[in-house]
Specification:
InterPro entries: 2TM_dom. By secondary structure, the chain is mainly α. The chain has one domain. 75% of the residues lie in helices and 0% in strands. Helix 1 packs antiparallel against helix 2.
Length: 101
């Protein structure tokens, strides 16, 4: 029950999704590098207190939410498209329209 897309629409969506994934990979790389640096400072620098866990957890939550938005809920993702299709089918049954949009 999927609608066909033109080659231009496919290209646009593919570029958008690839850009979103690349953004997440860059975010994850910066997260690892910065948190390694922060961990080193907290272990070998200022008083040897394990304070580095706080930015690690806070930023980690942000990274996880970013990943969910890109890989699970983003435009064209499997979960999002599945939910849209189910909602479309429910509305068609409710309104008695079996045709295409």
């Amino acid at each position: 029950m999927s609608t066909s897309m033109s080659p231009e629409e496919i290209e646009r969506l593919a570029r958008k999704r690839a850009g979103a994934k690349l953004g997440w990979y860059i975010h994850a790389s910066v997260y690892v590098l910065v948190n390694l640096f922060i961990f080193a400072i907290s272990q070998y620098g200022f008083g040897r207190r394990p304070w580095s866990v706080f930015p690690l957890l806070g930023w980690g939550l942000g990274l996880a939410l970013h990943g969910i938005s890109v890989f699970l809920l983003g435009t064209g993702s499997g979960l999002r498209e599945h939910l849209v299709q189910k909602e479309r089918e429910r509305l068609r049954r409710q309104h008695g329209d079996g045709g295409t949009p």
